[in-house]
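Review this today:
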Amino acid sequence: MKVILTGTTGMVGEGVLLECLDNIKVSNVLSISRKPCNIQHPKLKELLVPDFTELDKFTDEIQGYDACFYCAGISSVGMNEAKYSFITYDTTISFAKVILTVNPQITFCFISGNHTDSSEKGKLMWARIKGKTENALMRMGFKEQYNFRPGGMLPWSQQKNVKPLYTLVVKIFKFFTPSKVLSLSDVGKAMINVVGNDFQNKIFEIEEMRIVAKNN
């Protein structure tokens, strides 16, 4: 499959990228980001897009893809609701609309988060907005659209975009609650393995991701 991938300069996107490059099911990867990911590989091409809400300027470059793995995102820590909503909801939906217009048969996979609020009414600001984004994506009319809600994620050993303290905390977390931790390789495998399978369930929690990651 040919995959469009965002977020490759962040921890999650970089981890999913490494799985895509290592996975025999993936033949080509187009990284769309604001800055280079500094990874060289025969499968990989990069498209630098300064503003994701203006992806419609690059329609020629994004044609002919089977899947889009949207891993771009930002922590809500220290952000007000309006700014977080613009980055998480408005930007994602704007990007997804262009992807769908150019590739009407594409599968769109969105990295969300554990405890995302599908009701859009809870107390946690980030969870409401993630839930709103998931709901909007599911209504857009993609051939397939899936939302992934990982918890703690163990990075690849060669990843660059990871804070050492994060890795330490996740390793400790895994020791006490292993069911709540996935490797980023498994996150990538789960996203790859849903493409073309038309799962009835559109939201994948941690254990469901673990199961799908094992499917070959």
Summary: The chain has six helices and nine strands. Residues 149 and 205 are 5 Å apart (CA to CA). The mean pLDDT is 93.
